[in-house]
Automatic annotation (TrEMBL):
This is Acetyltransferase component of pyruvate dehydrogenase complex. NCBIfam families: PDHac_trf_mito. Residues 121-197 form the Lipoyl-binding domain. Binds 1 lipoyl cofactor covalently. InterPro entries: 2-oxoA_DH_lipoyl-BS, 2-oxoacid_DH_actylTfrase, Biotin_lipoyl, CAT-like_dom_sf, E2/Pdx1, E3-bd_dom_sf, LAT1, PSBD. Residues 206-253 are annotated as: Disordered. It comes from the Eukaryota. SUPFAM superfamilies: CoA-dependent acyltransferases, Peripheral subunit-binding domain of 2-oxo acid dehydrogenase complex, Single hybrid motif. Its EC number is 2.3.1.12. One of its GO terms (biological process) is pyruvate decarboxylation to acetyl-CoA.
Length: 547
């Protein structure tokens, strides 16, 4: 009966719980196990619950007390219980709308760590500055620890897979800690490289800051030795270590030798078993040891002379570390050759009319103070117009569909000391030759200075690579730049003897070979041939490009 009345009293108290919660100065009690760590902070803060949010209050305090003994609650035994109480105003907003309330949701300042006691801070991770970037290098820091930073200021220069890009600050604050300094390589995207704080006095607190594997940083402190549970195990008596007696060699294997011969053999590390004795009953004597040493010396000298004569001269070399651009270029080209079914189409184009038009245009450019137009500029224009005429070649492959682009953006291969760059000429089919020439020169200069930005090389739909003009290469096959489906390799122009209009009459003409590399998943052979026909038409009749 006493137990039943106890349960009845408790149920009556529960019926009055709404009145208890609606009280103006109601006390809200939460229970935490001794192992839980509420993230309110290591110091007692003040909180006030309002509509849908929790705001610190100067008048309402949070108090905590801990008991290490045993506490009974509704007949249930609780061990190592800590109690947190807080005064609550307007519980209808705080509890009715936030039924999932927990202490871990109370304080959500970015970078706040209740375990390490660090002030609010921001962890700056290695950004993804291009679609293909998985890791990057830090070229140099332009800010030092302790410097004030503002939005738009450059923190450091990051070397991506294609260029060196400036990393700008997004918020006001102070650079508290640089975790990865100048020259740091192979930093994964998202890995923390620096810490910023809002207040200058918080900088010193991050002197020994190191990010943890979970992403939150901690300051190195001398950790308390963990408590280890002692598990009783049956004690087994150790087996006594006994040395096993070495079996005596059989009598027939015993080697007989004189004391002087044995001493001489020990001094020269000669195994007696390899010597045949000449003494009484096969006994090894001193003369046997000396003969063995003399024969062994001849063999060693002969072997050494042979090895010396057979050893080739050592190669002289130097190991050059891979740059980030070189590694990414290698991986992308390898991926292209392994996954894209290449095929190649080559055609010779007569460039006599093209050269005449170029000379006329350059005369006009020089008269007006403009820059000269190169053969490569005319090739880019002709390729762009051919792509507009045969749009199937201005496409890329995906597993679900073939994406055909409406913009004709031509990448131009540029070789530099830092590696191969492919800056892009956007909407090349809509631009004039002088505009194309100016953009190519500007982008090539930026590539050589390693100052290209992502927008300078991303978004291309087709690539042109010219090794003929600058290097005199007659003909070559280029590797497709994924996700594109075609690349044009341009060789050098050369004069050839061709038949003339009359019988047995000949004349000279200049021909430039070009090779189109195609992705057979996107461009069928006939489509590739149609594109080359259109390209050849523009090259051999360049006036049509001006229409």
């Amino acid at each position: 009966m006493a137990y039943a009345s106890h349960i009845l009293n408790q149920s009556k108290k529960l019926r009055n719980a709404p009145n208890f919660l609606w009280h103006e100065h109601a006390i809200f009690i939460r229970w935490f196990s001794n192992h839980a760590q509420p993230s309110i902070g290591k110091r007692d803060d003040t909180w006030k619950i309002r509509r849908h949010c929790y705001v610190p209050s100067e008048t309402e305090t949070v108090s905590r007390s801990a008991t290490s003994g045993t506490m009974s609650m509704f007949g249930i035994q609780k061990r190592n219980i800590s109690i947190m109480t807080m005064k609550v105003r307007d519980p209808s907003a705080g509890l009715a709308h936030n039924q999932g309330f927990s202490c871990s949701q109370v304080y959500t300042r970015r970078g706040f760590s209740s375990d390490s006691g660090l002030p609010p801070h921001q962890e700056i991770g290695m950004p993804s500055l291009s679609p293909t970037m998985s890791e990057g290098n830090i070229a140099r820091w332009l800010k030092k620890e302790g410097d004030k930073v503002s939005p738009g200021e450059v923190l450091c220069e990051v070397e991506t897979d294609k260029a060196t890009v400036e990393l700008e600050c997004m918020e006001d604050g102070y650079l508290a800690k640089i975790l990865l300094g100048d020259g740091s390589k192979e930093i994964k995207v998202g890995e923390v490289i620096a810490i910023t704080v809002e207040d200058e006095e918080d900088i010193a607190k991050f002197k020994d800051y190191k990010p943890s594997t979970s992403g939150a940083g901690t300051v190195e402190e001398s950790p308390a030795p963990p408590k280890k549970e002692v598990v009783e195990q049956p004690v087994s008596s150790p087996e006594p270590k006994t040395s096993k007696p070495t079996a005596a060699p059989p009598a027939e294997d015993r080697i007989f030798s004189s004391p002087l011969a044995r001493k001489l053999a020990e001094e020269h590390d000669v195994p007696l078993s390899s010597i045949k004795g000449t003494g009484l009953d096969g006994r090894i004597v001193k003369a046997d040891i000396e003969d063995y040493l003399a024969s062994r010396g001849k063999e060693v000298s002969a072997t050494a002379s042979k090895a010396k004569s057979a050893t080739p001269a050592a190669l002289d070399y130097a190991d050059i570390p891979h740059s980030q651009i070189r590694k990414i270029t290698a991986s992308r080209l390898l991926f292209s050759k392994q996954t894209i079914p290449h095929y190649y189409l080559t055609v010779d184009t007569c460039v006599d009319k093209l050269m005449d038009l170029r000379n006329q245009l350059n005369s006009l450019q020089e008269a007006s103070g403009g820059k000269r137009i190169s053969v490569n500029d005319l090739v880019i224009k002709a390729a762009a117009l051919a792509l507009r005429k045969v749009p199937q070649c201005n496409s890329s492959w995906t597993d679900e569909y073939i994406r055909q682009y409406h913009n004709v953006n031509i990448n131009v291969a540029v070789q530099t000391d830092n590696g191969l760059f492919v800056p892009v000429i956007r909407d090349a089919d809509k631009k004039g030759l002088s505009r194309i020439g100016e953009e190519v020169k500007q982008l090539a200069q930026k590539a050589k200075e390693n100052s290209l930005k992502p927008e300078d090389f991303e978004g291309g739909t087709f690539t042109v690579s010219n090794l003929g003009g600058p290097f005199g290469i007659k003909q070559f096959c280029a590797i497709i730049n994924p996700p594109q489906s075609g690349i044009l390799a341009v060789g050098s122009a050369e004069k050839r003897v061709v038949p003339s209009s009359g019988p047995e009459q000949f004349e000279f003409a200049s021909f430039m070979p070009v090779t189109l590399s195609c992705d057979h998943r996107v461009i069928d052979g006939a489509i590739g041939a149609e594109w080359l026909k259109a390209f050849k038409g523009y090259i051999e009749n360049p006036e049509s490009m001006l229409l």
